[in-house]
Write a structure and sequence with these properties.
CATH topology of the largest domain: Aspartate Aminotransferase, domain 2
Order of helices and strands: EHHHEHEHEHEHEHEEHEEHEHHEH
Number of domains: 2
Mean pLDDT: 94
CATH superfamily of the largest domain: Type I PLP-dependent aspartate aminotransferase-like (Major domain)
Structural class: alpha/beta
CATH class of the largest domain: Alpha Beta
Distance between the termini: 11 Å
Largest sheet: 7 strands, mixed
Low-confidence stretches: none
Number of strands: 12
Strand content: 5-15%
């Protein structure tokens, strides 16, 4: 591999372009302002009965009510967690354990369904349950990454206790039809069944660009993550519908109604509520703006870089997501060369780090060359047309340089 830092820009001379908003977003000023009082002023422990503790408790419960309202649920259906990953773990392991206890059975007698293109924090949970004896069906996707509701209907069984399908794919941008999946699940529930059946979605990438109402989506459990919507890192939440079997996975205190022990992080919880409200307020305008930028960017890349192969659908994808594979090129080298030019992009979901190629691209059936050469460009609130024009030029230069050096 040649030196990716050659021809690097001087960081003092040019503004960096951040195109990795699907991994993490900057905390917006309004969100920072909402968090500020709880760092040093209203810093009490919500479990204390003195005034400082009760002030913290009031702030947390107020935030819970705002999150519930934004999601279309009830405050007692919201549990704050340390991340979206933790919320996914609580949903998946929590349902499996609760059903086992409810029916006095064991994991080998349970069947669960997910898809081949879920986030690693979902897939790894199912793989662990599978290792413990549970029966798991991984729904396939087509070449654009879509899950067919008919495949879900065919996979459902009497002993199916959980379906987990994401709302928006973080790597290739698909906006999945959760309501259609929910219709399939409701139809299955109407049959005589001995087992309860819950529907979970990882909606971490959803609220910023799509309405996220649990009643409209038809879900029983829903994960959100503040860092994906201009809020702080280290805070997520799980919505769980009343009556849905769910067992805690952590122990040591009665916080969050016993579902998630440990002193709640009041500043982060305030930030989560503020960020969820913020993205809802600007969702429509921002989605329209980024959709236009996204489509122009896709067309410009395809015109300037013949090697580029679009991943995912051209329509009905997240406004901020663009995913290309560059067969014959090394994705990490492309990332480093773009970084040297002041542009931040990613390969696959960063939660997978450097652990091999993209499992999402592999599931599309495009082959290893596509899976190992995928770049994700995820736009955000600060992204401009000038940023994307510069990115296209830099990408074309990087690809042409690699071709000429062969």
């Amino acid at each position: 591999m040649s030196d990716p830092t050659e021809s690097a820009v001087d960081p003092e001379q040019i503004r960096r372009i951040y195109l990795d908003h699907a991994a993490s977003t900057p905390v917006e000023p309004a969100v920072r302002e909402a968090m500020e009082p709880f760092w040093s002023d209203s810093f009490g422990n919500q479990g204390a009965i003195h005034s400082e503790g009760q002030a913290a408790k009031a702030a947390i419960e107020g935030a819970r009510e705002r999150v519930a309202t934004a999601l279309g649920g009830h405050p007692d259906e919201v549990t704050f967690t340390g991340s979206g990953t933790e919320a996914n773990n609580l949903a998946i392991f929590g349902v499996a354990e609760a059903v086992c206890a409810q029916l006095d059975t064991t994991l080998p007698h349970l069947h669960l369904i997910t898809s081949q293109v879920e986030h690693s924090s979902v897939l790894d949970c199912f793989k662990h349950l599978e290792e413990q004896g549970a029966q798991v069906t991984y729904l396939p996707v087509d070449t654009e990454g879509w899950v067919d509701p008919r495949e879900l209907a065919a996979a459902l069984r009497d002993d199916t206790v959980l379906v987990s399908l994401m709302y928006v794919n973080s790597e290739i941008g698909n906006h999945y039809p959760l309501a259609a999946f929910a219709d399939v699940i409701r139809a299955h529930r109407r049959e005589a069944r001995a087992y309860p059946l819950a529907f979970h979605t990882d909606a971490s990438q959803g609220p910023t660009y799509f309405a996220t109402n649990v009643e409209a989506l038809g879900v029983d459990l829903l994960t959100i993550d503040a860092q994906k919507m201009y809020g702080p890192k280290g805070i997520g939440a799980l919505y769980h519908r009343r009556g849905t079997p769910l067992a805690p996975q952590l122990f040591g205190g009665g916080q969050e109604k016993g579902m998630r022990p440990g002193t709640p992080a009041t500043p982060l919880i305030a930030g989560l509520a503020a960020s969820l409200e913020l993205v809802a307020q600007r969702r429509e305008a921002e989605a329209a703006r980024l959709t236009a930028l996204r489509d122009t960017f896709i067309a410009d890349v395809e015109a300037r870089v013949p090697a580029a192969s679009l991943n995912g659908p051209r329509t009905d994808r997240s406004p901020n997501n663009v995913s290309f594979s560059f067969p014959g090129f090394d994705a990490e080298e492309l990332v480093l060369r773009l970084d040297a030019k002041g542009i931040a992009v990613s390969t696959k979901s960063v939660c997978r780090g450097t652990q091999g190629s993209s499992h999402v691209i592999a599931a599309l059936g495009k082959g290893q060359e596509h899976a190992t050469s995928m770049l994700r460009f995820s736009l955000g609130h600060s992204t401009t047309q000038e940023d994307l024009t510069r990115t296209v030029e830099a990408l074309a230069e990087v690809v042409e340089r690699q071709l000429s050096s062969r």
